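Pilot study result, target chain (897 residues):
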Amino acid sequence: MRGLYSKLGAGISLGLLILGWFVFVVLTPTEQATTQKREGQCERLKDLNHSQASCDLFGGCHGYCPGNPCQCTSQCNNFGNCCEDFVESCMNESQADYELAKQEEKLREMEHGKGIVGREWILSLVMFFFVLTMMALLYFAHSENKHMQNAVYELTCTTVSIFATNTVTVAVHGVLIEQLWMGKYPGLNQKAGPIVQAKIYGILSILCFLGSNWIIYRFRENEHHYYALGQLSSHMTGFTLIQAIGSLQWSVRDNGWKCFLVLPWTAILLRGMLFVGERLRAQFVGSTEVYWEYQAGDDEWHKFPDATSRELESRFMDSSDSESEVVLTVPVSDPAHPRQEVEVSLPHANAICTSPHGEMLPEGDGSDLSCGAWKVRRECPWLDFAGEIFIEGAALVMGFLVMQTILLFHTGYLHSVEGLLQKPKDWDWVLTGKVLGWSVVFGSFVPVVAASSAWIPARFLPDAELLRESCSSALAWCLVRGAALTVRPHCSTMDTYIVVAFPLTWLAFVVTGFAYSIPSGDKESTVVPHSIANAFGIVVGLAWDKAFESLALHMTSGWYGHYVVSKVCLAGAVIVTILPGWYWLFVLDLSEDQLQLAAKLKAEANFRQLLNVLADHVLFFSRLRPRRAPASKLRAEVFAWFSELSVEERLSVLTCHDAGWVRTVLKMCRLRGWQPRWEGHFKVAPKPVPPAGRVSKASASGTVRRNEAQVPRDPNVHYRRPHRLPDGEILAPPATADFRAASATLLAGLRVAFQGCCCASMAFDWGVIMPSPATVTDCEAFFSLLDDVSLGRFLREKEENPKTGATGWPEAPWLRQWATHAPLSAYLGSRLEVLLLQGYASRMQAEPSLPLAEVWASMPPAQRQQTMTRLGLDRRLLVHYLSKGSSLCFKIKSCCT
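Predicted structure:
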């Protein structure tokens, strides 16, 4: 059975191609249609080739000879067989009429400013609707309604795509037709008639169609990339087809029934192209890219298990299997029966006018499926998207042809493909009302077709989706055309679409927002708002594109030969300024699953951070002791010793030269930032040591490196920021008011000094951290400050010797009260306590019992000579010291705050 469907599909595709070629030949102008005025002097052209024949030999223009290799008729440009002197000899005959028509157009433009359609009135309309448009954008941007957000998203995506692709199509037409084909050297310098343009754009549309399929397949693994590029390429294909089929229809404009015949022929051709494209794309679908779903009673689609999906896909792709029913064991929604055997009827692989859904029925009695069959479908994201986007492109073409057919029916003559820019002779308000009425009719067809497809079998309503989208596109084309007919007779080309674009944009926001705001529990009903948004996206895109195109036409009036350049410049500006932001809107946009995952991870991270901050509070206040711990004997001794030192000596004692500790503190300062509102906490953890025997690339290449065993590795610093509550308030880290004030004073009173220039500070090999002189001038204030920083534990712990922590340097015992994460001021206060204890312990070595000058004077001369010899060059320091009689001072050449 499936083999029969495959053969039927191949036969129909081949038949459509033959029918398309046959109709294309039938619609070509006949020999009688190309015969104009009189027959040429054919005897004079006998035995002459194409280069020798000329229009002068015909005895004048518009002569016709059936067997001649070149012609001079008015229809020769349709075939591309005009004689070489046709343009110079024959086209110039109508130059006077052309100039007269141009002068009449200028007279109409001069009368434009009279009456109600003056420049001030147009400007007021533009300003009014601009304000309305901005208000609509502001409302949609701040709306919390998900449907409103979807409306703006759909409308914006389609509008920008239509605007960009139509602008590029106009530029391509200017370059390809007006410049290369009709232009001067290196152009062909020939008149591009409708048949010639139809053939050129037919080839371009085929290339665009193939390129669009390749783009979607190439980026099939990235949903946002192929969504953006696929929408652009499909709309580009649609506009090239409009040019091709519109030119073909224009070639038979004298025959009404042939013009009407183009519409059904195009529908058959487009359906054939869609079917062939579906068959070709299906051949490149991988087994891992497909999954199967079933629709439960809650109208939600649920995925089959992976093993079940693989079995269904294998049975679906097996063309030798004549049975489409499969008995499977799948989970159902009833908790009492978690697994149940069901019979799945797969959809036909090559069916044309049948439903794409299969059915799932229970095996046995009593189940939650007894109320009716569930739907089963085959899903491939990029394949389904390609089918939808090419249907929208085909509907764009059908909507244009429907508009042309309506205008032909009401006016009796065919309108040009460029009819949106052409000015009608007189304002026909009856025609305007009919065109606008047809747009309302087509808009009402959209929900009717969507509702009909739900209960009418697919065999009786084939291609319901193409029909629905064609109605929405016809709504768009008729609305733009009707709005232009309303304004165009009273305005110039430029003013028409500037006036029309703003009201249509405002109307698009209102109608699309209303369509998405209608409540409905059925998820399938979203197709109607989607079609409405797609239609008004076409409306806004076309209106603004024609406004910019008319602006380019107005700016280049009198600038002969550069209208093509203006089109290309406009298209380039659109590509550079608009498309990148629109493209990244798709690329950076997250899917629903990704947004849910991001929200979940963010909530977990916030909850984890809140738990960490609360744990710090509990641990801090549970270990909080009285304001002042009992004074110890060591504290009194250290205070007495430190008070006897001068300010320079105090600075020398409290200066830290440990390069690793200095780099760690500076890293904390960078993470903390300058003057933060609330202090965060830091955790210092040792950096893991690389395994023994590991040789880096630098060592292998001969680069000299320091021995890692001799130079300790700097620890890792982890920063825990203050937690922000949902209402925006900051949950401050645990601390008292005195502690915060003391911490700020201590941080402001410390200095970072370097022995060389500040530019050399990036190495941190010679950097030191020391307090400012003002901080240590008053010993009681300095000790009180450190008491507040340590929460009353400075030099009051029972442990007199500080222990070396995991970081490699000694730390004060009271630093452990902050557990794993401590503030920066606590690390600094701990280091100052360690330096004080180290300085106090080395006070005997720092203060010899006898002055050096006295010891030197009492030494024997031989011993003094031996000492000077051993000192070598350093004996100059000794001589300098003895001559001055003062102690060696530590001098800091440069200091950076």
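One observation from the pilot: The mean pLDDT is 69. A full batch analysis is planned for the follow-on phase.
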